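hey can u check if this looks right to u? its 461 residues, i copy pasted from the old doc so theres a chance i mangled smth
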Amino acid sequence: MPPPITGTVNVLVPTGALGAGIQEADVLAGLADAHAIACDAGSTDSGPAYLATGRCKYSRAAVKTDFAVLLRAQAKARIPLLIGSCGTSGSDAALDWMRDVALEVCAEQGLSPRIALLYSEQAPQLVAQRARQGRVKPLPPMRDADPALFEQCDHIVALMGPEPYVAALEAGADIVLGGRTTDTAVLAAVPLMRGMGAGAAWHAGKTAECGGLCAVSPREGGVMVRVGRDDFVVEPLRASNRCTPYTISSHMLYENSDPFQLHEPGGVLDVTQARYEAIDERRVRVTGSRFEAKPYTMKLEGASAGQYQTVMLVGIQDPKVLANLPRFLGQMHEALIRRVNEAMGASAGAFDISLRPYGYNAVSGEVDPQQPPPREVGLLFVATAATQELATQIAKTCNPWFFHMPLDREAELPSYAFPFSPAEIERGAVYEFHLNHVVQVEHPLELVRTVFVQGGSHASR
């Protein structure tokens, strides 16, 4: 058995996302030898709505409960607490929302930490100007950096690296609440700040970015990463959980198409020569990770609101319809389009109707000719139009055909099972991502604005 590593910087990662749930016992189990607590709070996984609106994916109550656990731990251990991509999107509005939650919890707990807020939202016009200067480059599948692309975004964020967190800690912050940040950077910040190896710090950050997801039982607490100059060790916080070389090594493929390289703001993590070794039944040591410095770039995410949607839903168990779904869906779609054109004419504007048969091929869109007919399907109708009123009027126009269309013209009119009354549900705006680009910067702090607040107070930028 290899001897345990010494001289490490230990980062306690309690969860993969603030608001997803943190058990205080798990945090306390690792607090004694932790040098920092760090976790992520955001993602683009759930689509563009959270960036376009500035709203958080998780409930305020869930985020507040998790933050209260971490605040108490930070105060007890007197170690830094870092949270990245606050409020899901990391936009300015999302970070302000998280600031208010944090100050409320501080007041309730009678604590007054110094809190740094790292803002990384960018004005669309300024990003468009950088694009005109040739400082913005597209990433696949985007083909260009047309300035008009950036100007159509409601909100744009630039993904930070670890440097703004380090600067905030060096300026005396007890807690750092970050805008949009790479998941890895917020975990790597303190080890890098304290002189640990870049390869080990970045790889440890990537491994622990989702908390317990790198363990055998992903939902059993978070993990501790102990980062040295040439290696790092991962250990679950909960005694009943364990890590294995497989669970640790496989996390390089999580949200990453290349299992050996990961691009970050200031370079590339290369784990081609990494070795994963079980220390015991619960802990894994990793050696051989390298970080190759590159010109500093920050990834851009941009989103906006577009058209509007209204949906309807029916459940179908008719065996004849289910045995002939492709024909039925084609006939219905054609009939619905024709009905809208006849009833509404040009007033409908540019619109779209889609039918999504859940229980058949709604997820993949592919049809397996060998697949037997389903027992039932939930058929989702989606009308997309320029305004909410138009989308709803289109749905109302289609209502009798959607709920009562037979497979064959001469058949009796069926009534499919509808779960709601009224049948139409206004879904609101359709949000879209517009960017997959990087912006070149001369300094890691160039696009980041830092504001300090004191626990128990409220400050505006």
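The chain has a mean pLDDT of 95.
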